[in-house]
Amino acid sequence: MPQVTFAQAPEKGGVLTIALNSDIRSLDASRRDANTDAILHHIYEQVVGYRDDLSVGPALADSWDISPDGMTYTFHLRPDATYHNGDPVRAADVKWLFERRMATAKSDNPWFCVPNFDGTQGFKVTAVEATDEKTLVFKLDQPNGMFLIHLANVACNVWAASPKNVGADGKWIANSAIGSGPFKLGEWKKEQQIVLTRFDGYKPSKAPGSGYSGDRSVYIDSARYVVIPDKSSAEAALFAGQVDIMQTVPAARMDDFKAKGARIIYAPGLSFTAILVQTKDPLLSDVRIRKAIVQAIDMKQIAEVKTAGLTGYNPSAVAQSSVYFDNAFLDWPTYDPEAAKALLKQAGYKGQPIKLQTNSRYPGMYDNAVLIQASLSAIGMNVQLETLDWAAQLDNFLAGKFQLQSFGYSPLSDPSLRYVGLIGDKATDPSSQWESKEAEALNVAAMRETDIGKRRAIFKQIHALMVKDLPIFGLYYTPIIDAVGPKVHDYKVWPLDRVRAWHVWKSK
Predict the structure, then answer these.
(1) Residues contacting 325, CB < 8 A, separation 6+
(2) Are 47 and 59 contacting, i.e. CB atoms less than 8 angstroms apart?
(3) Radius of gyration of the chain (CA)
(4) Is the dihedral of CA 127, 128, 132, 135 positive or negative?
(5) What is the pLDDT of residues 155-194, one digit of tens each?
(6) What is the pLDDT of residue 489?
(7) How many structural domains are present in the chain?
(8) What value, to the nearest 5°, has the Cα angle with vertex 299 and ends 296 and 305?
(9) Same structural domain for residues 473 and 491?
(10) Predicted TM-score of the model (pTM)
């Protein structure tokens, strides 16, 4: 008779300790970074949030309606949402905070996301209205599918906060963090630790928990973030049981962590690893040379080696973790060294040197450059590594001063945002990798569209053009890998790589 196993019921209580590589920067997101965002999202709730698959789902808003012309969004906030001080959450509070942030546009410290909503990037929020206590209305100057995506942006922090966080002088009160999230601020000892305690007055969303959307039920008594800048010290604390969660484990170290008693939790990521190509270069402007380079690279093997088999190759701007992904985005010229040699001969390549820039600060970029050099040397190409310091390589990227570069792009939540960074006029933005008016027009259409299926179809058209032009050689998306102690249960990682302390519990 087969053995039947049952999921263990969560135990309530305990302290979850998380290693943090640097302190947070503020309690109101006026100064932010990834660590600040991750912790503040426990204290505050966004209007809407990304799900695990990066689609947009309910958070503080249970639901929303879009007007037939696509220019008015009406959000219905959870009726039982309350702040940590017991006050009810009002739609007017979201309006107040959004307008307060937009007003920083011309200050010394403007809100990071002002360009997303002021018309700079294709649409403008013309008005925000609170039509009653729980109804919030945003009006746009034109229909645009990116509005919800920007509203859910983890770095934008469009959430509800109590106006009581601000004093009579209009300034945010020191150490004040009155939100409506599942945790409230317990303590912040700068450069030492941040302690969040469970908010027992929290009434979770009825939507399934996923990413930053839906149910955020909490089982632990508190989440304690300990600032440990040195990675080896964080590892030692994890193995000693002083820390329960450590982020960003190198793929090559997974077996070592497991041997010392840790469990490895991983998910597909959004950091795009690629080889950049200067298509303005006299030699590399020939698409036959570019295709020869592509066909000389065994992308599947590189992805297997560099991610320890956790994720496959992906040449496209649509990550495996995206709701828009399907196997059509893996279409690419096949690995075929003999065909590559024939293309080089056809193009008249006679051993001209090609420099491949890399750096030693990021081992992944350097290792990829070494593998690519070996692959291209095997088909008779004269590829020379040029190892720079990271700052110099980045300057060259921004100025377009390279032939080939081993590079890595930061995570982005939506394919349109990735394409915006790739497509453009090199004369005005030398960091653009792909000059294609057709691809640019398609991406503008994708940004206006709200239907997931229709957006996916547009992205497939863009990728088909990329296969034809070969303006950049994508390799893989770096997986998210965290390590947890043996007493930690139901901890999950997700593409946006932020620790979530809700749903997690610890055994005694």
Answers:
(1) 318, 319
(2) yes
(3) 24
(4) positive
(5) 999 999 999 999 999 999 999 999 999 999 999 999 999 9
(6) 97
(7) 2
(8) 125
(9) no
(10) 0.89
Kindly report the three-state secondary structure assignment for every residue of 325-386: CCHHHHCCCCCCHHHHHHHHHHHCCCCCEEEEEEECCCHHHHHHHHHHHHHHHCCCCEEEEE
pLDDT value of residue 7: 60
What does the pLDDT look like over 437-471, one tens digit per residue?
Answer: 999 999 999 999 989 999 999 999 999 999 999 99
User: Does residue 301 share a domain with residue 211?
Assistant: no
Assess whether 125 and 158 both reside in one domain.
yes
The whole domain housing 312 covers: 268-479
User: Which residues have C-beta within 8 Å of that of residue 207, sequence separation ≥ 6?
Assistant: 57, 58, 62, 213, 214, 215
- Please answer whether residues 467 and 246 qualify as being in contact, where contact means their C-beta atoms are separated by less than 8 angstroms: no
CA 193 to each of CA 26, 30, 84, 197, 332: distance values in angstroms, whole numbers, following the listed order = 13, 20, 21, 13, 47
Backbone angles phi, psi at 210, to 5 degrees: -160, 125
Q: Are residues 388 and 280 in the same domain?
A: yes
- Residue 198 in contact with residue 218, Cβ under 8 Å? yes
Q: Is 79 exposed, middle or buried (0-12, 13-18, 19+ CB in 10 A)?
A: exposed
Categorize the per-residue pLDDT at 3 as very low, low, confident or very high, splitting at 50, 70 and 90: very low
| Measured distance CA(294)–CA(470) in Å, rounded | 8
Q: Look up the CATH number of the domain holding residue 152.
A: 3.40.190.10
258 domain-assigned: no
Structure tokens at 345: 């001969």
Residue type, 239: F
Mark whether 96 and 177 lie in a shared domain. Answer: yes
Closest CA relative to residue 388, chosen from 401, 376, 371: 401
d(CA 290, CA 272): 19
| Ranges assigned E (strand) in 114-182 | 125-132, 135-140, 159-160
- Nearest-angstrom CA–CA distance, 249 and 267: 12
* 402 close to 392: Cβ distance less than 8 angstroms: no
Decide: 506 and 16 in contact? Cβ < 8 Å: yes
Distance CA 156, CA 11 (A): 34
The identity of residue 124, as a single letter, is K
DSSP state of 123: -
Q: How far apart are CA 3 and CA 440, in angstroms?
A: 56
Q: What is the CATH number of the domain that holds 318?
A: 3.10.105.10
